[in-house]
Amino acid sequence: MLLVLSEEHKEHLGFLTQVDSAVVGEFGRIAVEFLRKGTNPKIYEGAARKLNVSSDVIQHGVEGLTYLLTEGSKLMISEIDFQDSVLVLGFSEELNKLLLQLYLDNRKEIRNILGELAPKLPSYHSLEWRLDVQLASRSLRQQIKPAVTIKLHLDQNGDQTTKILQTDPATLLHLIQQLEQALGEMKTNHCRRIVRNIK
Question: Residue 62: which of 82, 73, 48, 52 has the closest Cα?
Fold first, then answer.
């Protein structure tokens, strides 16, 4: 699978051809640091003074490199695919090898950082349910009004929370059908391919 880069990203990465390999390596370190701690304008300004360019050019170069490394790490593309993706940029052989080495050295760390940035959603722990049926009331002697009460226990970051939901059986059946349809769709080849690339 090849990375598809927009013209804007190609333009931002084009700056790397104007600097030597040590600077590209430093940009790689800054890109990983950018993922870990966020942007730091002082670093861009310091690098801009040393290279006699504007800080925006440095920032765009680092952001372009960050995008290249994160997309490659997210998709876990192979060495050959990464080289083919970078080949489109028209860089020298030395720069291509340097970018590949940068990618291989930081791939696991970038995936770990991206995993930490992902939102922690609650997960299922257990479920209790009860069926209540109201057969009559003072005003209506023969009425059947069923209700399903569900107590959902969730885990989030080691803490347990409880949600209580109440619905009628028709809505519950519709919900079950929708969930079964979603599970059935997960078994299609298209979804399997997407899930395989996410992992």
Answer: 48
Give the Cβ contact number of residue 192 at 10 Å.
11
Quickly count: other Cβ atoms within 10 Å of residue 120's Cβ: 8
Strand-pair partners of 167: 148
List, for residues 132-173, the tens digit of each pLDDT value: 988 887 787 788 889 999 999 999 888 899 999 999 999 999
- Side-chain half-sphere exposure of 145, counting CA atoms within 13 A: 8
Residue 41: HSE in the Cβ half-sphere, 13 Å Cα cutoff: 2
Beta strands in the chain (DSSP E): 123-134, 145-156, 159-167
| Length, in residues, of the chain | 199
Q: Are strands 145-156 and 123-134 parallel, antiparallel or unpaired?
A: antiparallel
Distance in angstroms (rounded) separating the CA atoms of residues 13 and 78: 20
pTM above 0.70, yes or no: no
